[in-house]
Amino acid sequence: MDIVNRPRRTRRNQIVRNLVSETTLRVDRLIQPYFVTDGESIKDEINGLPGIYRESPDSLVKSVNDDMKLGINKIMLFGVTDRKDQMATSSMDETNPVILATNELKQKFGDDLFVSADVCLCAYTDTGHCGVTVDDEIDNDRSVAVLAEMALALAEAGCDCVAPSDMMDGRVGAIRERLDIEGFDDTIILAYTAKYASAYYGPFREAANSSPGKGDRKGYQMDYRNRTEALRELMLDEEEGADIVMVKPALAYLDIISDFKRNTELPIAAYNVSGEYTAVKLLAETGLADEGLMAIENLTAMTRAGASIILTYHLRDILTHGWHIG
Ligand code: PBG
Ligand code: ZN
């Protein structure tokens, strides 16, 4: 046959395939999430997130110590507590589990460990909403004031990076200002810039005990029918001083990641969320597909779309099993 263009030429063997490969997934760009709870000597595997634990600060420090030997040096902490009230006071008091854990981690590991922490109120409000409720409404501006104090408390505890995931308007700017006034101008803000109202957060909400008591999160998280609106959020977070912009979830939102890639010079992160992780785990359990191959394929797709940083529950497994990242 008279075919000039034969794309199969460069697919002939692994060496050639590697030579022409366009995307490299890097393990050193992955961040491992952890759940920290009140108490001592607690380490419970989370129902619905196999291989992920809810741990008290003392136990978390040990787990992180072990994980650092595997090669993990960037982590994201989420708080879990039963101490909930209207104004989310436990989000920033001295007994907050994330604050306790961060203090210990930074004392022990210093700059060898990059500690980031989620900034949101849903684990701490009695309503389970990401903002505070005043007169039956989720009050944006009062929520932002509380979030800024929470971010400051986390920075004071030693967090290298704070990650607002609440989706209140103006929170990135308010956090930046609050941090700077107190001299934390080096604390990084990783903004959940385009965070969609998603069914894929299911396992996380059970893990963090943070489901809204009534209603849903559609009044603040984005509507998944919208694409252009994500660029508006991007523009606002850039203006307000975000250092890293994140898209969440990742897999059903690769178009948004790719739009970010074309519209910002900032580093782009993707959150490979709990439901995406557990879907892979459950499918692997049936024996119908290989867990490592699925995980690496998913993470590579996020990278190909334009994410350079990925938060993923798969990280520990990738390092433990030495899954080939291509
Ligand atoms: C808190 C928060 C959520 C996630 C990260 N931060 C849950 C939510 O918004 O309901 C989800 C992460 C995951 O599913 O892995 N706002
Ligand atoms: Zn929240």
Beta-sheet strand percentage? 15-25%
Strand order of the largest sheet: 1-4-5-8-9-10-11-12
* Largest sheet entry: 8 strands, parallel, barrel
Q: Write the CATH homologous superfamily.
A: Aldolase class I
**Which whole number gives the mean pLDDT?**
97
Number of domains: 1
Please tell me what the overall shape is: globular
The proportion of residues forming helix, as a percent range, comes to 25-40%
Count of extended strands = 12
Cα gyration radius (Å): 20 Å
In N-to-C order, the SSE pattern is HEEEHEHEEEHEHEHHEHEHHEH
**Alpha-carbon distance between the two ends:** 33 Å
The low-pLDDT segments are none
Q: Indicate the structural class.
A: alpha/beta
Query: What bound compounds does this protein have?
Result: ligand PBG, zinc ion
In CATH, the architecture is: Alpha-Beta Barrel
> Class, according to the CATH hierarchy?
Alpha Beta
Write up what this structure looks like.
- This protein is an alpha/beta fold and 326 residues long.
- The chain has one domain (26-321): Aldolase class I (TIM Barrel, Alpha-Beta Barrel).
- It has helices at 14-19, 57-70, 97-109, 140-157, 171-181, 202-208, 228-240, 254-263, 274-285, 291-305, 315-321, and strands at 30-37, 43-46, 49-55, 74-80, 114-119, 133-134, 137-138, 161-164, 188-195, 244-248, 268-272, 309-312.
- An eight-stranded parallel β-barrel has the order 1-4-5-8-9-10-11-12, surrounded by seven helices. Strands 6-7 form a two-stranded antiparallel ribbon.
- Helix 2 crosses helix 3 (97-109), helix 4 (140-157) crosses helix 5 (171-181) and helix 8 packs parallel to helix 10 (291-305).
- It binds ligand PBG and zinc ion (ZN).
- Zinc ion binds next to loops.
- Residues 120, 122, 130, 165-166 line the site of zinc ion.
